[in-house]
Design brief:
This protein is of the alpha+beta class and 423 residues long. It is built from 16 helices and 16 strands. Helix 9 crosses helix 15.
Length: 423
Amino acid sequence: MRLRRFLINEVKGTKEDFAIKNDLKILLGDKIKFNSKIKWHIRSNVGDDPKNFFNRYGYNLEDTSTSLSGQYTTYRLSKEGLGSTFFVNTLRYNSSINTKELTPEKLNIIGININQQEIIKTVERFINLSNYQKNIKEYLLELLEKSKNKGDKINIKSLDIEDAEKRTISNDFGEVLCAIWSISNIGFKEVFFPVMSNEPLLDFYGIRGKLKYPVSVKSAAGSATSLKNIINLILLQKDKNDFTERFTKRQQILIELIVNIVKLPVIEGFIMGHKILKTKAIKELSKITKTSIEDINEQLLNTWLQNKTSKELKVILQPLYKLMKNYPDVKTWGKYDNNDLTKPIGIIMGPMGHNLVKILNLEENLSTLSDIARKIILLQINISINKDKMIFKRDKFKNFTFKFSWQGGAPNPDRNKLGFKVL
């Protein structure tokens, strides 16, 4: 069997993670590659029998409730004497349904108040005019019709549908099915799907009278999001009279921080984030540049860097780097000396950006962000489509955690915005 290419996340691994990494490098050689994602794990396509694949190398592979991918299955990989880590099998199944083809946007039901009958009529027309196989059409129409029934567990016909189709339907069609179900089971008169795409924290509003209730839908696969999405929800409610009263002082500080990070350019956003949190790093930078914290900005730092060599800066900025435990690498310094960095300020803001991510990922800040989201999103509906049942579960928005990430660095400090994943 041909060995697959492996990707191993290097963000912050444990001793067990690195022991497994080193072992797999010996067993699989240069087929192992590295990639920076949110949580340390290994990912590769090892075929449709991953447990047998790893058993040949002395590893055990077990199912886990942790999800590190919205598309692929996550496992717990372990070996006696080494410990365990996470593994994501990136096997692609062939599906006759394109990804995102059954979302509200593609079904043309976004941006309007729409009732149950209109949703079903519009989606039925789309399905009947599609080129799907007969059994796929029958299955989708069955789900559509049955989703208006009352009850949390709804029986459906057991049709011969490939796992790939079921996975795509569960991921993409769940929002529509939950909206139809919520009108029958929660008492909404209409629903409203936002125009903004890729917004898994807010999938639709349930409308009852003059009130709009934000609803989040979660299928078995989970979801990922950008920081901008939760900010959009905050900004929608910020003008309400009781907005400030609903949040603690700590929550208001974090709201101010993430609003600024989203609205400002990347570098200015990180500088403002450090200012708002009054971090040790911004205080040290103020001391080094002999500038008040209030006056620090991108332009000032660019001016301060002028005519300074890497040899000088390594000494001057050493206290800052040591404090953050983050240093530009040799290659970056070489580019700095050769004037090859598009943003020389990256030697400061690269480490400071990662330092801010580290601070935001402290438990107290993640917990605060979760509390903020719970006050904004009122309801979460979980949908699971099994062989012969659709199972709906409604609850307050609570069973989730956040993980911040940033894909930038010293060589490219302005390329990517701060983001997070809902785990």
